[in-house]
Amino acid sequence: MKRRATYLLAPLTAVVILLGAWELYVDLGGTDPDVLPPPHAVAAALYDYRGDLWSNLLVTAEEVVLGILAGAVVALGLALVIHLSGWLRRALYPLLVASQAVPIPLIAALLVIWLGFGLGPKLAIIGLISFFPVVVTTLAALDQVDPDLIKLMRTFGAGRGQTFRYVELPSALPGLFTGTKLAAVLSVIGAVFAEWSGANSGLGNLFRIADTQIQTAPEAYAAVVVLALLALLLFALFSAAERWILPWAYHPPR
Amino acid sequence: MSDSIAIALAGVSAAYGSTVALEDIDLRVFAGQRVAVVGPSGAGKTTLLELICGLAEPSAGEVGLAPAALMPQRDLLLPWLSALDNAALPLRVGGLDRAAARAKAGPLLQRLGLEGFERARPAALSGGMRQRVSFARALLSGRPVLALDEPFAALDAITRAESQRWLDRALASEPRTVVLVTHDVEEAVLLADRVLVLSPRPGRIVADLEVALAHPRETGDAQVQAIRKAALAALGGHRG
């Protein structure tokens, strides 16, 4: 019980200190409140615009969840293919790394032209952002498989496919989850870029409209708070799923 | 003990690049015999086991054998499988379905003193219990020869002594041809019918001692100590 209380108390303390410092900074004239509204103004905006924020959150959350799943499926496939073939590893890995250097706003605009204003370009952008950490962590998990374990499987007469099925694939799953948790956080940013470039709903769209009208800065920051909460929630959900699906891989933090 | 030969190495050498791990090894192990191999670090003990398990090829000489099942030093159990499914893994690889493999592995785990722990994952088992699961897995591979690679080296002294007595009993009820690699000369004399002493790299057989004593053997037994001293002398004669 006491442990559980500390788990909540520690992050809450950190948030309270951060908000206090922010409030003081703005109140003492550190910056123009129209540019950086103080936390109490953001809190008021959260309340005033709760209906808008909620309906747009649902749109963004749907895009993000579908985008992460699409990205993770593609990433698992890529990681396995790269793992099984040294030739493909050398051929594809540099391209995967390079793909992350492409500025998302640039291709976001391009994808909107190609795929329209629907769900398509959002999934493509979120998928593009979220597949990379999943590929890297899944490959790392596959590379860490004990070579002695592979030898042991050979003494049981196991072929390449059986070693893959019984040893390598299960070993890859913790890496898949680690990457998906990273992707959950990154993909929220991806959703903002995607909605920025062409959408008429979603938190990113809300942010864009608010940003062009400087008097609505508190509303924009309220959207940021909701985005941050979405990222936290997704991270927590994937962590819980990992514990439930892979209990053997879970080591409680100290 | 039958007179058929389970392992036959003739003039075998093994090298990795320019490093010669084993040199001119002649060894015939009869079916059902328990052979212990002792030697200093780097004497090629692990290479010898890999040859016997069909995991390495000799650079010279002839290897004639039925490939052995390996019980590794680190238990190498799969953390996501239960004790039962870990032990049954070779059966699954051999083509049995899950139910049939479990049905075959269950009674063996019970005979090895693991009743009630069949569904436990390795993380919930003690080091000694994990080695028993690893031993069960090696037995269930169905290979007639067991290659044990310092199976108790990672255990504490008390658990190691218990595990040695346990292995002695287990091999009495599940007889197999055994090659036991160990750095513990006493363990070798307590468990084996024959103790081979390897020289420092490149490993050669410098002594082949017979241990014709009844099981179970006691550490304090005068004959055990005499053979232990002979093995240590053979080891020491090749130091420095």
In short:
Chain A contains ten helices and no strands.
Radius of gyration of CA atoms of chain B, rounded to a whole number = 18 Å
Could you give the order of the helices and strands of chain B?
EEEHEEHHHHEHEHEEH
Largest sheet geometry of chain A: none
Fraction in beta strands of chain B: 15-25%
CATH class of the largest domain in chain B: Alpha Beta
Give the H and E element order of chain A. HHHHHHHHHH
Number of separate structural domains of chain B: 2
Biggest β-sheet: strands ordered side by side in the sheet of chain B: 5-6-7-3-8-9
CATH architecture of the largest domain in chain B: 3-Layer(aba) Sandwich
The tally of strands of chain B reads: 9
CATH architecture of chain A: Orthogonal Bundle
**Which percent band covers the strand fraction of chain A?**
under 5%
Q: Can you walk me through this structure?
A:
The complex is a heterodimer of chains A (254) and B (240). Chain A has 254 residues and is mainly α. Chain A has 10 helices and no strands. Chain A is globular and about 70 Å long. Chain B has 2 domains: 1-68 and 146-240, 3-Layer(aba) Sandwich (Rossmann fold); 78-142. Chain B is 35% helix and 25% strand. Chain B is built from 8 helices and 9 strands. In chain B, the strands form 2 sheets. In chain B, strands 5-6-7-3-8-9 form a 6-stranded mixed sheet, sandwiched between helices. The radius of gyration of chain B is 18 Å and the shape is globular. In chain B, 44% of the residues are buried. The mean pLDDT of chain B is 89. Classes of the chains: A mainly alpha (254), B alpha/beta (240). The interface between A and B is medium-sized, with 18 and 23 residues.
